[in-house]
User: Fold these one by one.
Assistant:
Number 1:
Amino acid sequence: MLFDTEPKTSLSDLFGREEEVEKLKGGLNERLILILGIRRIGKSSLILSTLNSLGVDYAFVDVRKVYDSSTRKVYVEKLLEEIYSSLTKLSKKAYVRNVFEKLGIEIEYPVRVRVKDDVKDSLNKVFEALNEIGLRKGKIPIVFDEAQYLKYSTLGLRPFFAHVYDYMRGITLIVTGSEVGLLHDFLSFDEPKSELYGRYYFTVELKSFNEDKSKEFLRRGFKEVNVEVKESVIEEAVKELDGIVGWLVYFGKLYLEKKEEAIEEVKEIGSNLVREELKELEARSPYYLLILKAVASLGKARWKNIMDYVTASTGKRVSNTTLFRELNKLKSMGFIERNGEEYRIADPIVRYAVLK
């Protein structure tokens, strides 16, 4: 169902991503794949639907679950537990259990993997097992969803990723990132001192739906649930929510109960969902929210508009260097977009939450 708020797991429920699906399928023999796009654009749905359609073995690790926003760290022990829990489907297959047992890895139910080594050795051993399975049965994709948070891991994972890339040819690493700049900071392909320097990576980028595709998404979703909706309502929803599929889904689901009030309800629910993201931004820098407020208040803002707003809000002029750095960081985190000389907030609900 198009209006199901859970990530799509079947291509029959995935709308408007045919080109991206084919591109991802074509890249699965590569060593490392990056799936990029802002929050709530459908990265997880693309991966799960595509891999399920191919019937391949895979593991899916949601890094957000193990990111501690209070300490801004990913504790590797929790990451390892999340990797273990992602092996539920795989561990039920006899040939998988045989390989794991041969390497001294015990699997219990509900899934709990016990090894006697330290954390780093445990991680290596699990991946060695998956690599052996991949060499026998066909490459196994290992997905790290929202992998930019791995930058905050208590165990340096970039050397580990480089080791997997170079020596574990039975594994394809797939990483997604909504904070594209932070993801590239973590992987550091262009830094000569980085373990991943110069490695080739395959990229699939998801963009927001355009106006026509957004309207068609809503029409098809309402048709699935046999609900007639005025075209004017669909047009208003697309105008307010743009082409971000996550918010369009929320609108479609809420309309069944709230009717014309659904748009405002999405804004309220959405602003609550992004509140933690904004709190974390505020903790990272005193300028981030001020910049977002400057851009949000105008819809589109130029450098001078932002500088004037920040200066008026703080009572002092921030340096050009600082403002340039903070703008670039917000852009790298996917919160703002730049078109020529103008900046805008990429997500309309984030803009609403900032103004609120």
Note: Residues 288 and 326 are 7 Å apart (CA to CA).
Number 2:
Amino acid sequence: MKRRMPKMQSHSARQMMLCCSCLYILCSAAAVIAADVSDFRMIDGKRYDLTFHDEFDGQILDKSKWQHRIIGPSAPHKVVLTEDAVTFDGQGNLVMLLYTKDRADAAIPAEKASIFPGRWIPYTAMLKTIKEFTYGYHEVRLKMPIVKGAGMSVWMQSRGQTSPTPSPDPKVGAEIDLVEQTFFDKYGAATDFRHSTIHWGGYGATHQWVSIDVKPKSAKPADQSTQDAELNLQRTAPAAGTNLINEKRVYYTDRPGFRDGNFHTVAVLWTPVSYQFFYDGESIGTIDVGVSQSPGYMILWPRLYDYKNHVADSERGFGGRDETEAKFVVDYYRIYQIK
């Protein structure tokens, strides 16, 4: 539970006698809170000031900061996006649900029915910040459920990247994936899949990307003749007649992963020349291509992974809104920028 300032009580005579000790307690609590949410961070010798944050301490969504990105059946995402998949746990956390309804009870319009495979119709939410941001250190602290068919995406999007006539120049905008994760592969085997990716040039003929997967050092290939000390670059050949970048990198680490039911942090340091990604404060690599110089908005989205294999025709789906164990708990989102 997050630490909070104690509430002031009525000024009785007894309380006035204890004012000195009360003041001490209040000042101590304030100092603790200041340590929890620092006004700034020093990164590479530069001061980054806190310019935006949401600690999710309330009981309703702060609509001055967030809005639902889409409502209703979404063909690209194969889910129904709904406001009732957003709630709060009373302990200072946003909770985003991924739940299902039986097709017979879902009342999906006939023209949308073909979007969804199987018996169970999935429901969740997709939140975006109202304000857009350029550059800075963006950090999200969250806990992800170990549930088949479920995963999470924390990403920034820009208008230039989603334009109907996108430019191949990344300066007009990019998609910045702080993390995409899931804990089961398509066969149902346990995994700790997590990666960070940059997309630019739109999503059509000029689409380009660079991705960093995170894996344990025990998975590192024995033949390291083509690898540097930390990153194994696996370049995908560009399409014929193009110079498009499609590159997968792998970062190997001895640190534990996310598959433990605990809170973890994901972050990106976005500058005019690069993106540096962090999981639990550990840098997993820097990407110095595809760098956007245009503002973007943050998106929080519980998403489907291999849903058709694991959930669509299973015995109970994810369960209803009040039953599902696919609960994505977000502690905070904070942005630190150079002013």
Note: Residues 224 and 232 are 8 Å apart (CA to CA).
